[in-house]
Design brief:
This protein is an alpha+beta fold. The protein is 31% helix and 33% strand. The chain is globular. The relative contact order is 0.18.
Amino acid sequence: MSEHETWQNNVRVSALQIWSPAKVNLALYVRGRRPDGYHLLESLVVPVTLYDRVAVVVEESSSLYQTPQIEVDSSGFAVPTGPGNLAARAAVAFLEALGRPPPRIRIHLEKNIPAGAGLGGGSSNAAAVLLLLQTALGSPLTWERLLEIAGRLGSDVPFFLLGRPAIMRGIGEELEPVDLPRKFHLVLCGNGTVLLSKEVYAQARVALTDFSSASNIGNFLMGMSSIVDILHNDLERAAAVLEPSIPTLKDATVRAGAVSASMTGSGSCVFGVCPSRTQAVETAARLRAMGFWAQAAETLSSAWALCH
């Protein structure tokens, strides 16, 4: 995170920016459904080295702003920038919790993480905004309050706020931080298809009839099984009904050089496991030559990185 502070006409201006990471679900099991329809998950979620850049400018005055003024713009992959944007919603939720005259906030999103891909870009951006506002405004909220706000914004936002590998349970509110056995090299691959999580989960109600798949997460974390053994995603079948190209993406990723491949989150992107960084870079280049969007990436033990 970088920060710059100035005063302009009795207004305190703080400018901050941070790299906002993507994530992959190395394993994702659906363990059931709540009466309200939400699916219960068990998932090993890991931040990876594909980043958006989130920049926030905060203008504080004791009298100028009586209602929140929040502006969002973006570059790179196209995303909506209106009040429905998750970063904007994060800013609104933070301001509602302040209990003092709200500042004016300008947010810029440099989008390198494709939307609707299961990589968590929007949730990561929302967590980034919460962290940046907490810093810019002098840490006015407790960690517990930040987590509460994150949970109301979306199931992946608490994970990104935590900022490290974790086992996610429930609907995302139960997080168990974990350490991976080592760093892993991945290649991320997509074809530009946008899948909405709510539609995939709706399809999963039809596609999933059994919630008893055995998890290999514990053995993997203890170094007793390989990363290839852990790859699993219960949502893949449902996502493939909506987007039949997902099996093709997996096959292409393996043919291009990955050892194995799986879908991340609710799709539509897949990721492949590679034995080295060089192999991941070469695999990504082959996939791009085949017409896919592809990036080499590595797993992260700590998610948030400075912008310079």
